[in-house]
Amino acid sequence: MMKNVKSKMVTLGIACIAVSSIFSSCTKNNDTTPQTSGDPATVTDVDGNVYKTVRIGTQLWITENLRTTRYNDSTAIPTGLNNGDWTATTMGAYAIYDGDVNNNNTYGKLYNWYAVMTGKLAPKGWHVPTEAEWKTMIEYLGGTGVSGGKLKSTSTLWMAPNTGATNSTGFSALPSGYRTYTGGYSLINKSAYFWAATQRNSTQGEYFLLDNDFGSTSANGANKTFGYAVRCVMD
Length: 235
Hints:
By secondary structure, this protein is an alpha+beta fold. The chain has 6 helices and 12 strands. The strands form 5 sheets. The protein has a 3-stranded antiparallel β-sheet, with no helix packed on it. The radius of gyration is 22 Å and the shape is globular.
């Protein structure tokens, strides 16, 4: 009798482990939350560029860098500025890395902070996220130490080692580099810089950084004439 009881207990234990394993596989870490019935699957800017969306926590984000040449009121954004004009302008402007159309198609455009702060850069119903909104997402993903890897694409466009990259969020960040305040270009394939719609001080805007060497996210301030990538979040 005791032998039968032990046998049943072993069988029950195996069954429990199997159920637990199935449950764990169904509930393994996934940093994307299901989109609601009211979430648009895509959003279109004023130029007709279409971007996919993903819900991360309570926020709905576009999964590509902005590529628009116009504000959402159809006003053209200045571009083609030489190094001197790029440095001197206090108006919104954008550039394409090295002026190469292939970089535009892959990485989107690089906007200065003045373009961000017009409040008209994002498609209507969307906006450039503030510092607080970036931090809300980062905290949802477990903090600065691990959020970078969850946001970075696993694409080979990232220079090795692309530390920690899983893209578990579907945010699909690519290493778009930046345009410096003096007009040069730097760090494509290594780093991704994103503006926040928040001013650090009279000469700097806030930005968030992802890098191939780190699985973390960092933040800092940069001269408003730098050209960085832009992501948008739904109003």
